[in-house]
Structures are given as C-alpha cells and as structure tokens.
Design goal:
The chain has 200 residues and is α/β, with parallel strands linked by helices. Helix content is 34%, strand content 22%. It has a seven-stranded parallel sheet with strand order 3-4-5-8-9-10-11, with helices on one face. It has a two-stranded antiparallel ribbon with strand order 1-2. β9, α5 and β10 form a beta-alpha-beta unit.
C-alpha cells in the first residue's frame, strides 16, 4: 500500500485508512481484530475513530487491541472531538467545542485508547487545537466536515504567523458520488499545504 506524507508535516499515513465507526456497535471485538489484521497485512497504518463513535466504545475496542494484539507504533491514530453525549435530557448528543470540553474529551479518548498521544486530532476550535499540541497530547491537528471557507480560516488561525501548530488535515466526504471537494477544497489544500482525508 502506498504511504504519503500528510501535508507539510512529518506524519506519514497509508493512502487508505481504516474507519472504526461501527466497532463495538455493529462490529464485535473479534471482527474488529480481523479487520485490523487484514488492514495491517495490506500495509495500512491510518486508523480513524472518534470519541462519539458508540459513545466511546470504538476507542475502547482499539485500546484493547493495542494492549493485547498490536504495537502502538504500527498505527497512526486519528480521533475526533467536538460532539459530547449527554446522558440526561431529551438530546442524546450536542456539539460542544468549548476548550474545556475538547481537552476533557481528548484526555478521555487517550485513556480509552491506552496511549499518551494521538497522531492526529480532528476538532473544531483553533485555541483548543493549539493547546492539545503544546501540551503533548497530540502531534498534529486538523478538522472534520467543514466547508472550504472554514477550513481556510482554521488554517490561518492555526498558523499564527508561523508560530502555531498549523493545520495538518481536513477530513471530508469524498467518493464517486460526492466530488464537491475537488472544486475548492483540493486546490486550497494544495495552495496552503494541508492534507485531505477522504471518507465515504
């Protein structure tokens, strides 16, 4: 499998990533282990999860595999924050991009995964992203499911005249049926130097 450098960072990722949204929900532990083995045998490294996948169960499944089956250095771990699940009230989840919530969610994700850092954290506010990098909890940061104008704005906010952590990647839908990113986001990523993680 081809491996690429993610934008202008030193992070190298496999050209295909393994999504884990169904792990612990529709995909049991044994199936998850089999999927991971097939992915690693094919040369894959990029494993994508989120704090909100299965209310954290996806990260727990990955954490168990890291403890019992695979070495941490064999994976490039990507997780996302910004949606918090509330156990009371009528709404089961809400967007919560406050700095405290994002950093608390990051710490909870690290505990579930059983690691001291992520390779890439995708969230929604520039200041919390900068703090996540400066505190050593993640190596690189990016955003997920933002329009092009917001991605460019986040790039500018995270660059801070060359002193900030920069925007490593934007994760967006990209498939044969959804090709809208090719008009604006792809040229913006090439001009500004951030990577694109496509999913469908």
């Amino acid at each position: 499998m081809e491996h690429r450098r993610l934008s202008q960072t030193g992070l190298r990722v496999s050209s295909v990533g393994l999504g884990t949204m169904t792990w612990g929900r529709d995909t049991d532990d044994l199936e998850a282990k089999e999927q991971l083995d097939i992915f690693l045998d094919a040369g894959g490294t990029l494993v994508d999860t989120a704090a909100s996948y299965g209310e954290g169960v996806s990260e727990e499944v990955i954490g168990a595999l890291l403890r019992e089956h695979v070495d941490r250095q064999d994976l490039v771990l990507v997780s996302k924050a910004g949606v918090r699940t509330w156990r009371t009230g009528e709404r089961s989840s809400v967007a919560d991009a406050s700095r405290g919530s994002l950093l608390d969610t990051l710490d909870t994700s690290l505990a579930r995964l059983g690691t001291d850092h992520l390779d890439l954290l995708l969230v929604q506010t520039a200041h919390a992203l900068s703090l996540a990098v400066s505190s050593g909890r993640t190596r690189y940061v990016g955003i997920a499911n933002h329009p092009t104008w917001a991605s460019v704005r986040m790039h500018d906010l995270l660059s801070e005249c060359g002193r900030g952590p920069g925007l490593a990647a934007v994760e967006v839908e990209h498939s044969l049926l959804s090709r809208g990113i090719e008009r604006e986001l792809r040229p913006a990523s090439q001009a500004l130097g951030f990577g694109i993680l496509g999913y469908a």
